[in-house]
Amino acid sequence: MELTGEFGWLFAVGFVAQLVDGAIGMGYGLTASAFLATLGIPPVVASATVHAAEVATSGVSSLSHAWFRNLDRRIFLSLVLPGVAGGIIGAALLSRVPTDVIRPFVWAYLAITSILVLGRALLRRPPIDVAAPGPTLGATAGFLDAIGGGGWGALTTSTLIARGVPARYAIGTANAAEFFVSIAISVTFWVHLEALRLDLVVALILGGAIAAPIAAWITRHVPPRVAATGVGATALALAAGGLLRSLG
243 lies in a domain? Predict the structure, then answer.
């Protein structure tokens, strides 16, 4: 494996993305995919790279959240299997669609999920008292996560909190389920892709693995609003610029 000049940048991106994701339950795939896209990495390779790294980083994050008892077993079981199925379908579809066709949709998706992150951070509304999440949430989040290279946390964590789940358990449970969804998506990409940028994967893993235990600890101590606003605004700016370039 040959290290490139992008390695250091991706190490930093992996650290920051996992620190935010582990602390507020969203932002890893969104941040990492947006940055990879700005480097000109094709959408399918970017998504495959991010999810390969997420297998390791979300695994460490899951163990960390379990250690701090930030998990809800019932919600986890309702998310994980539908999420795996949706992720496999999304990854298989992305692998078969030409890059020039899918890129504008990926940027648009990243912009939408960025707005979702900002909305959750800036709008203070009381929880909606509705039923527990069903398979639809997991399947939808898994599919869009594979297509866009991120978004699992933005969709699942926000929805869980809107439904009245305490933030601590919404964040920890979403992170735990993401581990299995990332495995399914990564395996699907490996079946369809001939090669993967291992240097980028390793950089994201190293940065993310260092940040994961720190993020799980601060989940219980640091208000997430400022961090969520920062990641949402940054990713939205990247997505808007990429969308304009791809359509120009």
Answer: yes
Start-to-end C-alpha separation, the chain: 35
**Nearest-CA neighbor of 47 among 144, 153, 181, 146?**
146
User: Residue 1 domain-assigned?
Assistant: no
Domain that holds residue 120: 6-247
The helix (run of H) or strand (run of E) holding residue 92 is: helix 73-96
Structure tokens given for 184? 């399914």
Total number of residues shown for the chain: 248
Q: How many structural domains does the chain have?
A: 1
Distances (CA, A) of 121 to 116, 157, 174, 223, 226: 9, 12, 17, 10, 7
**At CB < 8 A and 24+ separation, what contacts does 121-127 make?**
121/224, 121/225, 121/228, 121/229, 121/232, 122/225, 122/229, 125/162, 127/161, 127/162, 127/163, 127/164
Beta-carbon neighbour count of residue 105 at 10 Å? 16
Question: pLDDT 10s per residue in the chain (248 long)?
Answer: 555 667 888 888 889 888 877 777 777 887 788 888 887 888 888 888 888 888 888 888 888 888 888 899 999 999 999 999 999 999 998 888 776 677 687 778 778 877 877 777 777 655 444 455 678 889 988 998 888 777 788 778 877 876 777 878 888 899 899 999 999 999 998 888 766 778 888 889 999 889 888 888 876 676 667 766 766 677 788 778 778 877 76
Residue 3 phi/psi, 5-degree rounding, is: -85, 140
**pTM of model > 0.90:** no
Q: Is residue 194 part of a domain?
A: yes
